[in-house]
Please model this.
Amino acid sequence: MMDRKDILNNIRNIKEISVLIVGAGINGAGLYRELTLQGIPTILIDKHDFSSGASAASSRMIHGGLRYLENNEAQLVKESLMERNRLILNAAHYVKPLPTTIPIFSWFSGTLSALPKFFGRPTRNVGRGALIVKLGLSLYDFYTRKQRILPKHIFTSRKKALGKRPELNPGIIGTATYFDAWISYPERLCLELIKDSNLLEHNSLAINYMSLEKSSYDTVVVKDKTTGECLTLKPDIVVNATGAWIDLTNMALGKKSQFIGGTKGSHLVIDNKELIKATQGQMLFYENEDGRICILFPFQGKVLVGSTDIKIDNPEEAICHNDEVEYMLNAVKQIFPNIKISNSDVVFQFCGVRPLPNSNSDVTAQISRNHSIEIIPPSKANKYPIYSLVGGKWTTFRAFSEKTADDIFAILNVSRRMYTRDISIGGGKNFPKDMLERKKWIDKMHSQSGLSLGKLETLLERYGTEAEPVVAYMVKDNDQPLEFHKEYTCREIMYLVRNEYVVHLDDLILRRTTIALLGELTYSLLKEIGSIVGKLNNWSENTVEKEINRTVEILSHKHNLKLK
Ligand SMILES: Cc1cc2nc3c(=O)[nH]c(=O)nc-3n(C[C@H](O)[C@H](O)[C@H](O)COP(=O)(O)OP(=O)(O)OC[C@H]3O[C@@H](n4cnc5c(N)ncnc54)[C@H](O)[C@@H]3O)c2cc1C
Model:
């Protein structure tokens, strides 16, 4: 594997390339895979880490988008359901089925307000009764009838529902349960797309901490954020996959655009035993009193609660404010009125900006979640066309990338060699399909490595079958659990640093692992990991200290987390 220095050297020498993709969130990474599979020389850059924008801040649902049916977006729901099913198969290590329960408080409400929306007149939804939920879930089942891999929905009477879930608000008239999916490590899956692509093609390169700065007629200037060095590239096509930053990026490319109308969304990670128990392993998909849909579901031993939806102009300013925390905690109270959740149960919070299409709708939930490609054609000012990837969902990244790639192939006059529809991603390759295969994998790895069965289970959950090289690296030399986090070992951390393009300490803490997300980070642990990374990268003591301070500052400012 090339390290960042080699990649940088290659970029210095390449200069002319077919496609420059700016932005390595899920849409940039998905397209990078499509293009490298075809052998098209491509450079993918991101001004921060890979998958550090909206792609790291989602609700972690891989879903059809039941709610979008209200906005008359049946086509989007169909496509999302298809892509959801593909991800369950192709990324089985991270994308897993999730039974989802909707508490229902009336029989018919929402039916009247749904009609004008169906005919394109936006109205705010308040109260979705049993009839409207039944209609939505029946459509969900209908759309997946030909490729059913998850069970159909069921309704449960009030008496039965409360018997099974005594914590639920007794005001319900019943519940409905259907299936969607969730993703455990979106940042890692995005990175895996890039790593898979890098194994394929040697004339394509992906690099983090490299920003697009400015452009001239046929060149683009990019800047290495770690050193300040500027490089000039000559692309045939520029793809602007910078999400909420799309208009700012077009500005740097000398073009004015108003494609994006971002809304910020916040989430909480809650450590509360009663709440975890009350989820019963399911997602709760419920309506707040203002009619907005909120969600909560068990997430790696904690509960993920979301979200808000607030218009925002500058994506750099997106942080979760206290009133959003209160909003989300109050919404939980409406379905579990007797579960006491205090602010100290919130172990992590995060916020990101949905790169939605520019819209003057007052009701943010009704802005389309569909994706589109906005093309700025070549002109006297720029030789290359600029493709801006607007909107979309995590769930639909592959379909969006496929469509964008097809447009690019048409311009470059190449024909497609293969589709990504059935290609497994990263540790999803040969992932055990059932308990028997899982046991076989664990027994095999146990006899090869001597690691305990429990440790191997953990590694399989974290990395899928990509745990194999991790295990091989761990047992190659003396290893020991971290002093301040027994679930990780020194060599596991070293493996991630060596093989996963870690530039800053926060890449490791926030995106290669879930240490911060799950509220497991302490100052002592940060120092311990900082010293391992420092030794491996030959950082001076001063650099280690700077990296620790940088992480502390990001956690404090962006996540309101004060380390103890
Ligand atoms: C709160 C919230 C909840 C969501 N929930 C879900 C969900 O449950 N399920 C679902 O399917 N989808 C969900 N989404 C939608 C989904 O996460 C996004 O649509 C998707 O991640 C967008 O990916 P992207 O690659 O277009 O943008 P991003 O992930 O934002 O990537 C853009 C990248 O561009 C980089 N960049 C910006 N400027 C420059 C520059 N000048 N030079 C180089 N790089 C630059 C940024 O650093 C960033 O990494 C949610 C989104 C949010 C915000």
Summary: The chain has 18 helices and 18 strands. Residues 22-28, 45-48, 52-55, 57-61, 211-212, 241-245, 249, 252, 265, 307, 352-355, 389, 392-395 surround flavin-adenine dinucleotide (CB under 6 Å).
